[in-house]
């Protein structure tokens, strides 16, 4: 068995977050983050065995993609839809 390297484990612990940890950093409920994941509207995630993990850089990237300066921007509607409880209806 390979010995564990504390420095490497600390690095991974800081970079990869569980759903509850990621939700806490985003100030949303874990259930909301799960809903985003099911819809494909949340941050990129990794499935490792039975665990879902989020890399902090993917969370940062997702946050930047939903950033808005005005409610008249096209990106505002995209961000609003992400937070909506209803799925978009397609014609």
Automatic annotation (TrEMBL):
The organism's place on the tree of life at top rank: Bacteria
Pfam families: HTH_17
Span of domain Helix-turn-helix: 16-65
InterPro entries: DNA-bd_dom_put_sf, HTH_17
Alphabetized Gene3D superfamilies for the sequence: 1.10.1660.10
Protein name per its UniProtKB record: Helix-turn-helix domain-containing protein
Upper taxonomic lineage: Bacteria, Pseudomonadati, Pseudomonadota, Alphaproteobacteria, Acetobacterales
């Amino acid at each position: 068995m390979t010995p564990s390297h504390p420095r490497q484990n600390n690095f991974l612990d800081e970079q990869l977050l569980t759903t509850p940890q990621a939700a806490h950093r985003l100030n949303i409920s874990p259930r909301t983050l799960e809903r985003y994941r099911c819809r494909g509207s949340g941050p990129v995630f990794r499935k490792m065995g039975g665990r879902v993990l989020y890399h902090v850089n993917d969370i940062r990237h997702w946050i930047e993609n939903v950033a808005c300066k005005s409610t008249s921007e096209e990106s505002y509607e995209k961000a609003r839809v992400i937070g909506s409880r209803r799925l978009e209806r397609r014609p």
